[in-house]
Amino acid sequence: MISKAPAAARTFLALMISASVFGVFQHATVGATAQRKATARRKTTAQQTKAGAVVYACPMHPEVTSKRTGATCPKCNMKLQAVSADEQANAAGADKAGPVVAAAGDAKRDENAALSIRIPATAVYDQNGRRLDFYNDLVKGKTVAIQFIFTTCNGVCPPLAATFRRVQQDLGGRAGRDIELISISVDPATDVPERLKVFSEKFKAGPGWTFVTGSKPEIDKLLTALGGYVSNKTDHTPLVLVGNDAANFWTRTYGLAPPSQIVKIINEAAVKKGAASVDGSRKQSPPDNASPSDAAAKYFPDTVLLTQDNKPVRFYSDLLKGKVVLINFLFTTCKGVCPPMTANLAKVQKYLGERVGRDVLLLSISVDPEIDRPDVLKKYADSFKAQPGWYFLTGEKKDVDWVLYKLGGHVEDKEKHTSVLIVGNEATGEWMKVHAMSNPTEIASAVTKLFEPK
Question: For burial by CB atoms within 10 Å, which of 158, 191, 236, 358 has the most?
Fold first, then answer.
């Protein structure tokens, strides 16, 4: 399946903020290898638990703990999640919403990553069944924090909502007055207002915390504009989008970061220039008239990476500027999705023919740059008969991590990297996502459509 944004919203900035768009997709594994790894992980967890190294805590009520796998919280009935004993000890009085937090380096970059967002007029419904205009009623002239969830999620959504609950508590009376918290369902067909109402009550959502659903076309349009659209709801992003509409300022942060960190980013957004005058009136910033290339140059890093031939290249200037690109993420020691994904791209390369290297570049970026040095990538590329125009990229870890982060492909655990492809035309600002294991003719067709004059 190929998901393509509507023309009006099809910009790389909308796509990039979903890291998810891609950042936490579970890395697909194949056959017995995956089963053996899963068994090994269960044994390790069991051994750690027996030794007292692992306890389980409620994301909503961190004071509720157990040493038993599969235990649930008596207060909210949420499944307890594994957290180290040291972390749990430190959680007393600390600002932790769950066992997973963002790395300090990523958090700093999150705060500094300014984005450009254009929100369409979209008819939505809140958890109380009220019909709203998403932009005019919830965002216009306000400071907001937006997350993406669905009520039947058994993975990251409950911890995300629990984190927003803690953020709401920390904001106090400012929630609903100065700050709006918004949770948008990525499964609007299932998440009717009544379901969202039950879900919101589970997390004690107060005034100023709105859960949003609506018709699927309208919600899909909204999610696309915000960078939260995915064809598979379980692949949705765990990022939080923080914005000050009056100042035309938007940034993002990790949705499972400590609530105090999210509140800090919200507060910094709220005081951006143009947010509010002394009399409380709002001043709108002028519209962003930058061209797609201007916006791309501002957004994408121009850090130096190395190709499989050990040739230094600048990521934006040499590989993106004025080009159509197809980008994926891999690592050479991968035993799961990487080999079949790369083999599929080899077929795409064949279908594109002489256009590769002339009209389009294929960029395969290693998520394990310390192991995947140029000589290692060279052998890997040769094994798939990579032709000129298909670059396998590595470099200093900090440089590669920053590129991955801006593309939404950065993960702490390489096994969890995304298997979604990014296809884009830098000059026109058209970007889309394609599943890496889609039919190679469909992928090639998606790429060639970006060559067509609009």
Answer: 236
